[in-house]
Amino acid sequence: MKILAIDTSTVVASVCIIEDEKILGEININYKQNHSTIIMPLIDELLAKLDLDIQDIDCFAVAKGPGSFTGLRIGVATIKAMAQASNNPIVAISTLQAMAYNIFDTSRYIVPIIDAKSERIFSGIYKFEEDKLEVVLEDSPLTILELIEYIESNDINPIFLGDGATVYKDLLSSKFSRECFAPSNLNIQKASSLASLAIDYFKAGKVISYRELEIEYLRKPQAQRELEERLNKK
Predict the structure, then answer these.
(1) Region 96-186: CATH code
(2) Taking 50 as the threshold, does the pLDDT of residue 225 lie above it?
(3) Which of 39, 52, 114, 229 is the most exposed place for a label (fewest CB within 10 A)?
(4) pLDDT by residue (tens digit) across 207-224?
(5) % helix / strand / coil in the chain, to the nearest 5?
(6) In the CATH scheme, what is the code of domain 2-95+190-229?
């Protein structure tokens, strides 16, 4: 079984094809957020290098959020189009859960953080229990101070990753040790982690059709929030 996975939920554009439990290929671009112009060329390039056609793919996987509103829409629209054209199922996985899967089989609590701008973040807390990634804190829109307070009050030994961990590294370092940060090669979204998780989802029957695929923003778009604020002031 071959799965094509993409993650465009932040500035990173990542594409991977996995067959059973073997990663056939992966491309990661962590430079500017021009997903609308590069995601299909990346997919086409990976398929071509592997001598595959889109019809060779059995299932599609996508990061469903949280993350950038624009990035998520591009990723979901791309996967919907391919799934509809090929009549194949989709696995939709939390961006944060897929990020947490980068840090496999550690005894520490994994804390992926996405920078949501304006001093806000998206984060959750995960932990491996008997080789299975379990949710400790559901994906939530928070401030970095709220996340720190939760970690400290629950005596959690964290390992941080994601662009939010980079943005707030000085603050987090002042509260926790510098050994609490993932290395740079594991700090970004990786479609290979998404694809590996998708195998378990597929085996468990957690698949949907292109009609059922929805984005989990966790937070209203900025334009909508600003409009509501203006209306409330009237």
Answers:
(1) 3.30.420.40
(2) no
(3) 229
(4) 999 999 999 998 755 544
(5) 40, 30, 30
(6) 3.30.420.40
